[in-house]
Amino acid sequence: MRTRTSVTIHNFFEKHHSITFRLGWASFIICLSALQFGYHLAELNAPADILSCNFDKPGPLPSYDDTIWSQYNFKQCIPMSEEGVALITTSYTIGGLVASVILGSTSISMDYGRRSVCIFASLFFVLGSSLMVMANSAWMINLGRFFNGAGAASSLIMSPILINELAPVNHRGLLGALMQIAVSIGIFLAQYVSYFYSNDQQWRQIFVVAVMIALIQFLGLFSIPESPKWMIMNGGDEDLARSTLYTLRTNITTIEYEIHHWHHLAKGTQSPDENTPLLEEDATSAVDSDGSSISSRKSLDPPSITITDFLFEHKYRKQLISVILIMTGQQLSGMNAITYYGVKILNTLFNNQGSGGGNYVLVLTCAFSGVNVISSISAAPLIDRLGRKPLLLASIGLCGLCSLVLAIGIPNKYDVAVITACFGFIIGFSIGLGPLPFLMVSELTSHEVVSLAQSFGTVTNWTANMMVAMLFPLLQNLIGGTVFYIFFAISVAYLVAFYYKIPETKGYHHSSDVWEHY
Q1: Could you tell me which residues are beta bridge partners of residue 270?
Q2: Kind and range of the H or E run holding 193
Q3: CA dist., res. 168 & res. 367, Å (int)
Q4: What is the DSSP string of 278-331?
Q5: Phi, psi at residue 389, to the nearest 5°?
Q6: Residues pairing with 121 in the sheet
Q7: Which of 99, 264, 294, 355 could form a disulfide linkage to 48, CB 3.0–4.6 angstroms apart?
Q8: What is the pLDDT of residues 324-377, one digit of tens each?
Q9: ∠ CA 222-227-232 to the nearest 5 degrees?
Q10: How far is CA 193 from the centre of its chain?
Q11: How many CB atoms are located within 10 Å of the residue 485 CB?
């Protein structure tokens, strides 16, 4: 016997799902890309001066000749100037920027799928980390950093979209926040590993850990599903999309609506109104009583939108401005100045030499990273409870206040104030600027431009990231700790811009609803 599904949009929004095993596993594997992003952000923080021959720190063995690295003719260190060290930091952001531009100007994700791009990105991580392990020259370690940056950018574009398209509406905020939690765990892991391996004999093992994580994700990605939304909207296997949804949803009454809704999006039309049955006669999907589908809808091609359309068409103007603001604000708040150069900042404060620093400094950086993890986890449930905008405003406000304290405290050697401000900065970043930008891009933009918006947003994000990586050490050498006055001024400007230009997205399924109620 066949029955016709009769779910309305109102019913759909009211339905709540639990997290299935497959959804949880997929989210975990996808989030390993964010973990690797965080790991590579922080991996050079402690060992930079050691691997560049600018600082000596003995290892556990009598000499470097006793290590396995020496036996295979790997150098003890790679001679580099301070500018050379800044370049290997910046190479990561250059790789990210290049990958963002390529993904943003092509239809790779639409042609090959979200999961396929993530698999390709994981190979970049494997290649980049392997090059860093085997590096015997500056160009080789720079190339490794470049590939890691390309992998990170590709993942950060696709991973939020894939999670968003796999997750039910009521869990998108929480699962999206897992991305930032994974970033913070990656940063913590890098600092923790560096605490043990930042010495003349073992610094390559920091990158061995990165290779292992990359291989785990590469293999794990073959065990998770492709986005069912992508399958429907790009002429894929509808039966496979439906069976995939049955493993991702605990309330199966919404499944046929989701499929029908995606067909409407592919046509470029609106979904039925709130009180209209979701399955009209022209696009019905009969379902047997045992839940198996016997429908076969015609594949539909999504509307063709270019990056030029998104950048210059008036109807996307507000969306474009909001994407630029949240994606650049995340980087220009100054968080990565602490992530990239935190050890150097603290060494200056405590008069240590070299980024290998004393154990006290390394313990502090591990503590910073630990607080980052805890605050990211604590903030995750708040995203769906308090909303995006209040957390975003609180985040940029706290980061700005802590930047002011750092600007005053570092030149005057107020060590307690500086350490407290670093903790406050990290907490402030973790509750809003960290998890929200990549999540909100998909909520602020129309379905036909979401991939382009994510790609363009990532380009602006990596550009701002590169500016911080390149300019911060130069400005710090010129004006010292007062460089944080610049971050304070930037934070104030973004606080005002966020208040007036960024709408709340909590509780809305369509970007049109977000902007209509703004």
Answers
A1: none
A2: helix 172-197
A3: 35
A4: S--GGG---EETTS-B---PPP-PPP---HHHHHH-GGGHHHHHHHHHHHHHHH
A5: -65, -45
A6: none
A7: 355
A8: 999 999 999 999 888 888 888 888 787 665 555 567 888 888 899 899 889 888
A9: 130
A10: 21
A11: 15
